[in-house]
Amino acid sequence: MEIWESLKIAVATLSANRLRSGLTMLGIVIGNASVIAMVGVGQGAERYAAGQFESLGPNTLFVVPGSPQARNRTFDLPQTLVLADAKAIAQQVPSVKEVAPQIQSQQRITFDSRNLSGLVVGTTPNFLTVRSFEVDRGRFISDADLARQNRVVVLGSDMANKLFVRQDPIGESIRIKGITFEVIGVLKEKGAFLGNNQDETAFIPITTMANRVVGTRSPYGIPLTFISIAANDQQSIDAAKYQITNLLRLRHQIVNEDDFTIQTQKEALEIIGNISNALTLMLAAIAGISLLVGGIGIMNIMLVSVTERTQEIGLRKAIGATQEDILWQFMIEAIILSALGGLIGTGLGVGGVLFISAVTPLEAGVAPAAIALAVGVSGGIGLFFGVVPARRAAQLDPIVALRSA
To answer: Which of 80, 241, 249, 366 could form an SS bridge with 254, CB 3.0 to 4.6 Å?
Structure first.
């Protein structure tokens, strides 16, 4: 019997039992849709995290106080970085382009009857370059503001909108921790970084922050929350990390464990990528279990179908059908069920990925490799689990089959 004839008979047989065929395909549909959706969401989460880190600024490194071990052991970070360290890095490290020391503190900010709790950052003029921020109105902090410890402030776009509803904030006065500051600028919208809104921030001169707002000093100078650093280019990042490490070890007279940690975008992205890949693989494996369940369902229904169609099989073999013809007949039915279920599941999975991308910040995308893998696996499952019932049907004795009818 020709394959085409077997295909027409298989389609007619499956169409005659639409409900049973649909329920048989359900496991394959769910499995394919889940695998494609999970892989797409995982890749979208990785791209989202990469975009978040890129928003921190190109070729950026961060020097934070405390060794990695110390940071894991305590919430109170040691004050081991000072302003003099940042100045030394800017002057003595050739692979560094700009340095922006920062002191951060959560403070109460008020204007007239409006008040909110926001992040106050003491920094230097280099902050704009290092962290890729832009001024929308007014100006940013200047070197003169640092030298004179001026009480001036630059607001993030969201903070400006909340404090000054439909009002130009430039030239107005706000109070931070009870101290009056003049608003000299508003930054362009930057967006959130890993859930933290960077636009709800107030920026003041680092000297004003240290001496008037925070009011804390270490024996070695003004303590910093961390130091943001821009390397000369992408190729200079590793060299900058090595040179900064050596410089700070000499300045801090370190013999054993470092009292600081240097973090780069590349390292952070590698960690995020590894975590994302592991989670995606785990979720895809869990979703793939439904493909296995769907394959077992196909085998179960095909075995039932062999039992129900014993008379048909005996009659076909009696009029000349070979074992190979019967084998192909049932194999084709199993492959149709799994392939059709794979296509429907693929459509649902792609639709789910596009929906998630539309309603969430995740840049979820449809991975062609995931589609090919899911459809290939579902087709392979149909072929694999269809072998047993197909062989059972092919090996039926026609006389016994006709007598059992």
So the answer is: 249
